[in-house]
Structures are given as C-alpha cells and as structure tokens.
Amino acid sequence: MVRGVERICFTFIVGLVPVMALIIAKDWPVRASIVILFLGSIGVVLGLVQLVFDYKGLRQRADAQRPTFDVEALQHEGRWGSLEIWGWLLGLFAAIHLIGFLAALPLFVFLYAKVYGARWTTAVILAAATLGFLYGVFEQVLHVPWPEPLLRLLFHT
Predict the structure, then answer these.
(1) Number of domain units in the chain
(2) Of 19, 46, 55, 78, which has the fewest beta carbons less than 10 angstroms from its beta carbon?
(3) What is the domain extent for residue 40?
(4) What does the pLDDT look like over 101-112, one tens digit per residue?
(5) Under-50 pLDDT residues of the chain
(6) Residue 75 falls within a domain, yes or no?
C-alpha cells in the first residue's frame, strides 16, 4: 500500500515539471514557445495517464503478480570494451571541431555503419538522411549558427 502511494506522489511531482513549463512558456512569443507548448502538453497527458495507472495499481491487491521487464546488462564484446565507444565519441568530437558539425556527423554515421557491418547502400542512405535532417531542420528551419571549423580557420587566412 505504501509503495503505491509513493508511486502516485512521485508521478505527481514529476508531472508538475511539464505543467510548470507550460505556465512559464504561455507568455512567450509563439516562435519561442511552440516546442515547449507541444512537448509540455504531451508530458501533461502522459503524466495524467500514468497517474491513472498508479491509482489503479493502488486499488489492486498487493500480492498480485506483475510482469517484470528486466533486461540483462549488456556485456562488452571484444578486447577493448567500452574504450571503443569512448574512442568513437572522442573521434566525433574531434571531427566536429576540425571539419564542422554538418560534415562530421554524416561522416561519423557512415563510418560507424560501415565498420559495424552495414552494406554500402545502407551506410550511404543513413549518412544522407542524417545530412538531410541536419540541414533541413537546423540550417533551414531553426537557422542555427554553426561555429567555424578549425580547418577552415587555418586555411582561410
């Protein structure tokens, strides 16, 4: 019984976050608040649904068997384990600073897909989709100002 009340309280407190975001963003200009209003309203609806589920769980018998969704922890395969992951991330970080974000991320997606067994067509399609998404959303819609890559700064003078 106490566990069910704790779940309801936790869900309520977490559900207050999108409510507060909606309250804060309601006075902003539409262009600045559209994402907050959209995602916040989804968060409120999902929070209310979770509250209903928590309340129904509280009313059920305490000894009822509930399914568990435990997943075994991932085991690192290979000699290097998580060092390989950090190598990819540091390489992406270096590439972003050297050649720029719009070039580095599709290149990263392509190389990662090829190294881990993707066919050429799959790797090219994934890289092209990444470039299209980045350019379409961040460049054309949001007009994100990208910092100058280091290689362009070095060869520009």
Answers:
(1) 2
(2) 78
(3) 2-59
(4) 899 999 999 999
(5) 63
(6) no
